[in-house]
Specification:
The chain is an alpha+beta fold and 591 residues long.
Length: 591
């Protein structure tokens, strides 16, 4: 009996083994650094609030098969919530950018995401189709790029993606748009992308478009296409020299270059000549510098100089902060006048390259594909170099894609004085020399609101009357059309600047207060005329001094200002801790 059972068992195992050996064998995925995380994710037992962190970890460290699983979950609408799908797509884009890593297998499903109704998913999917060079997405991208109803930024992204997928098929479309576009903006968009694949042809079309540009046509996007290419600015300079634009167009082009910290000598020289602007001044001699310093001390006006510093065309506040409000690219200038001799201040404006602090020396990177990137080093890892340009934009460059990397000069453009009169330069130097000294230009010592945002596109209903709570929540708190603006050094926010920008006498501004410890806080306004104030979504009865209590966290301080009802043309708002309060808080500064 025992022998019979043993014989049966052996026979059964023989049959099983013969079946297994005849089944097709799937190649095992290579070992993964995030195998345990992926197993946990596949189990479906991850709490929703932890999904984003786990997906990021997988995209940061996983292999191409791990990324394919993430991609498949994004494609299956309904698997993950919309915000997670959107952020996960961005993580895949980051993996492609920083690690040159693409999900394994067929990626044609990206086409379905390109047609998504969710703007964030659609935008990132268009970029990924180009990064991954998904050929099957070409026709869908072409449809988007050639539709008149498509937003300009989406059209540009679609054309860029098409150019990466098939430069040959995209070339003729770009040339047609560059020559026969219905507007300067449309031609610029095509030229910007054409510069990626045919810089010589793009330069010819660019010079033709700039020659017929109107006074209000912005050449920024067109120029960026060439500034991003190795020797692109040189090629464009030659084309512009042969077919010059109007002087005002040349001035706008120069302003844009300086605003992003670019002073490419060949292009700058050609545009300066056409614009009728003198070349870069020679550094002053010792005697000339002494004369300038004397003039600054005796004739300079700090009030006028601050107005020069705040001018949009000079872009000073894009890079520099004063009292911690403003750009975070260059050094904070709050104390420069108290800490540096006036000779240093004058020379820093005339020739920024002579006095560069190590932390603010740029790096210039040329990639294996001929792209050029310039900026301050924001981060460097084993996989990528991150550069931050003069506008604050960060670009991640895979280490394997870097062909050459050299030390650059100051991110502050040399030749900035081209756009100033001599008197304006003297006033600006005076203003800078006063920063940090006792008086109106002292370093801020109170929790005074310096960094604001203003609503750029205010619906008529918000102008006509104070909004109801629901309207305020929908059209103000949830609005996306906010733009940064900064108070003067003394804390005064010039409302006239906002009125000029919005062309509306009723303006909405917003600051932020970060509370570390709950407690009572006192606010002080310079004037309550025409003011309606909200803290988060609560309407506050505000006098010149008002008290409120806040929980720990980030809070929005929003104001509606009817400037026609105000005698003061500035807004000044400070916060203090009342006696007996345990509140710990700070205004939110920055850009």
């Amino acid at each position: 009996m025992l022998n019979h059972r043993l014989t049966c068992l052996i026979l059964q195992w023989t049959i099983v083994l013969s079946l297994v050996t005849t089944l097709p064998v799937e190649a095992a995925d290579p070992p993964s650094a995030v195998g345990s995380m992926l197993t946990l994710l596949k189990s479906g037992r991850v709490p929703e609030q932890r999904l984003g962190a786990i997906v990021k970890l997988i995209c940061d460290r996983g292999n191409e098969h791990d990324l394919k699983f993430i991609f498949d979950q994004i494609v299956e609408d309904g698997n993950w919530p919309t915000d997670l799908r959107s952020s996960s797509l961005q993580q895949l884009s980051d993996a492609s950018t920083t690690r040159n890593l693409t999900p394994a297998g067929d990626l044609s499903a990206i086409t379905s995401l390109i047609g998504s109704k969710e703007q964030s998913i659609r935008t990132t999917s268009i970029q990924l189709a180009g990064q991954w060079k998904v050929a099957s997405a070409f026709d869908a991208l072409r449809k988007i790029a050639t539709s008149e109803s498509t937003q300009p930024n989406i059209r540009t992204s679609s054309l860029s993606a098409m150019a990466k997928i098939s430069p040959e098929k995209t070339n003729s479309l770009l040339k047609d748009l560059a020559q026969n576009g219905k507007s300067f903006a449309q031609r610029s968009m095509a030229i910007q992308v054409l510069a990626l694949i045919d810089v010589e042809s793009a330069a010819t079309f660019a010079s033709q478009a700039l020659k017929v540009a109107g006074q209000r046509d912005d050449p920024a996007a067109l120029l960026d296409g060439f500034l991003d290419q190795e020797k692109g600015s040189i090629v464009l300079a030659k084309a512009i020299e042969a077919t010059p634009p109007a002087p005002d167009t040349a001035k706008l082009a120069l302003r844009h270059m300086f605003s992003i910290g670019r002073t490419d000598p060949e292009l700058s020289a050609v545009l300066s000549k056409i614009a009728g602007i003198a070349g870069d001044p020679k550094p002053p001699t010792k005697e000339e510098l002494a004369a300038l310093v004397k003039e600054v001390n005796e004739q300079g006006d700090a009030i006028r100089g601050e107005a020069v510093f705040r001018r949009q065309d000079l872009s000073c506040m894009k890079c520099h902060a004063v009292s911690k409000a403003g750009g975070q690219i260059g050094p904070d200038l709050s104390a420069i006048g108290a800490s540096s001799p006036i000779e240093y201040v004058v020379m820093s404006v005339l020739d920024p390259d002579q006095a560069i602090k190590e932390a603010y020396t740029t790096r210039v990177v040329i990639t294996t594909r001929g792209r050029i990137h310039q900026g301050l080093v924001a981060d460097r890892t084993a996989n990528a170099l991150v550069l931050r340009d003069a506008t604050g934009k960060e670009t991640s460059i895979p280490i394997d894609d870097i062909d050459d990397e050299v030390e650059g000069k100051s991110l502050m453009p040399k030749g900035l004085v081209k756009f100033m009169t001599h008197a304006e330069f003297i006033d600006l130097a005076k203003f800078l020399s006063m920063l940090g000294k006792p008086g109106d230009y002292a370093v801020r010592s109170t929790q005074r609101m310096q960094r604001w945002r203003f609503l750029t596109d205010v619906p008529q209903g918000l102008i006509d009357e104070v909004p109801t709570l629901s309207t305020f929540e929908d059209l103000v708190l949830r609005a996306s059309t906010w733009e940064s603006i900064y108070s003067r050094v003394n804390g005064d926010l010039p409302l006239r600047e906002i009125v000029e920008k919005t062309s509306q006498s009723v303006v909405y501004v917003q600051g932020e207060l970060k509370v570390a410890t709950r407690g009572k806080i006192e606010g002080r306004l310079n004037s309550v005329e025409g003011v309606t104030l909200w803290i988060d979504d609560e309407l506050v009865e505000a006098g010149k001094e008002f008290e409120f209590e806040l929980e720990a966290g980030l809070h929005q301080i929003s104001l509606r200002l009817d400037t026609e009802l105000r005698q003061s043309d500035v807004l000044n708002l400070e916060f203090h801790r009342p006696s007996g309060s345990k509140a710990e808080f700070a205004v939110v500064d920055g850009q």
